[in-house]
Amino acid sequence: MLSSIISTGSFFYGFNMIRPAEIVDRIIAFAVDIITPGGGAGESTWWMRGFRNVQRGSQRIEKEMEIRSNLSQWDEDFPFMHHELIVRYAAGLLASTAALTIYDLLRASHKDRRR
């Protein structure tokens, strides 16, 4: 009984207290870092390094806009599974799992002390 209350309460807390826009922004930034190629050959002079930095910056912006447009398309195609709602569900599930794990560990250690 108590475990279901803890599970429901922690899911509700995690679902409502999360800021999905911040998490989505961080995930997009991480994905862009992985997808965009790093520095390469031809950066021996300061002018070429500067040119390459501008080129890399434009590639990053292009990839970020592409990912955001794909997310927008996803939201139009599946309005019942909005990407921010998926982040909220995942946060609630994670909070619920963590709370139940901690509760079970505390309950098990309390039972060991009683013996």
Question: Short summary of the structure?
Answer:
By secondary structure, the chain is mainly alpha-helical. It is built from four helices and no strands. The chain starts with a helix and ends with a helix.
Unreliable parts: none
**Count of helix runs:** 4
End-to-end C-alpha gap: 23 Å
Order of helices and strands: HHHH
Based on the model shown, name its key terms:
115 residues, mainly alpha, 4 helices
Characterization of the model:
With 115 residues, the protein is mainly α. It contains 4 helices and no strands. Helix 1 (2-17) packs antiparallel against helix 4 (83-114) and helix 2 (20-35) packs across helix 3 (46-77). The radius of gyration is 22 Å and the shape is elongated.
Task: Describe how the helices and strands are arranged.
Blueprint: H1 2-17, H2 20-35, H3 46-77, H4 83-114
Helix pairs in contact: 1-4, 2-3, 2-4
